[in-house]
Amino acid sequence: MPRDSRMSRILHVLIHMDRHVQQPTSAQISKMLGTNPVVVRRMMSGLRERGLVKSEKGHGGGWHLTKSLAETTLLDVYLAIGEPPLFNIGPDSEQPECLVEQAVDARMTKALSEAEVLLRERFAAITVADLAEDFEQRFAEQKPRAAASKSCA
Predict the structure, then answer these.
(1) Domain assignment of residue 74, given as a range
(2) Distance CA 42, CA 63 (A)
(3) Which of 47, 56, 101, 149 could pair covalently with 61 via S-S, beta carbons 3.0-4.6 A apart?
(4) Can you list the positions of beta strands (E) in the chain?
């Protein structure tokens, strides 16, 4: 099963919107992500519904942040993209007949549920500003080599 990269892609976009490209259009974001503007609008709609971004149509329009990165947690973004499955492992069937499989599935389901609770708590404790600060630190450490490539957009 392929990885779901929507969350990391949206976090990337939010940091760029804050630091590099105020009010980008869906077309500009699609170039940054290497995808179609329709896909961008679909991804951004969840953020808009949760009050993290706003869009303006027409000439001079585009997307802009409505909450600061310091007010936006990874959990906010995770919820905005529709809470995709956090793990690619789990029970093989809904109602296994084999008692061994039932025991394995029960224990795996319990462990994964506990891990999901912990991961959501961790997401709630990390802000997008924390990630942006990590970027700034990485950039400062590589400044001599990366002066011309601060942004990857």
Answers:
(1) 6-146
(2) 13
(3) 56
(4) 53-56, 62-65
| Rg of the chain over all Cα atoms, to the nearest angstrom | 19
Residue 51 lies in a domain: yes
Establish if 99 belongs to a structural domain: yes
CATH number of the domain residue 71 falls in:
1.10.10.10
Please state the domain count of the chain: 1
Yes or no: say if 82 and 46 are a contact pair by the CB < 8 Å rule: yes
Question: Considering the domain boundaries, does residue 36 fall inside one?
Answer: yes
Judge contact between 44 and 63, C-beta under 8 A: yes
Q: Exposed, middle or buried, 69 (CB in 10 Å: 0-12/13-18/19+)?
A: buried
The distance from CA 110 to its chain's CA centroid, rounded to whole angstroms, is: 25
- DSSP string over 15-32: HHHHHT-SS--HHHHHHH
Q: Tokens for 134, please give them.
A: 């990590």
**What is the per-residue pLDDT across 13-25, written as a single tens digit (0 to 9) for each?**
999 999 988 899 9
Quick one: 101 exposed, middle or buried, by C-beta within 10 A (0-12, 13-18, 19+)? Answer: middle
Asked if residue 56 is part of any domain, the answer here is yes
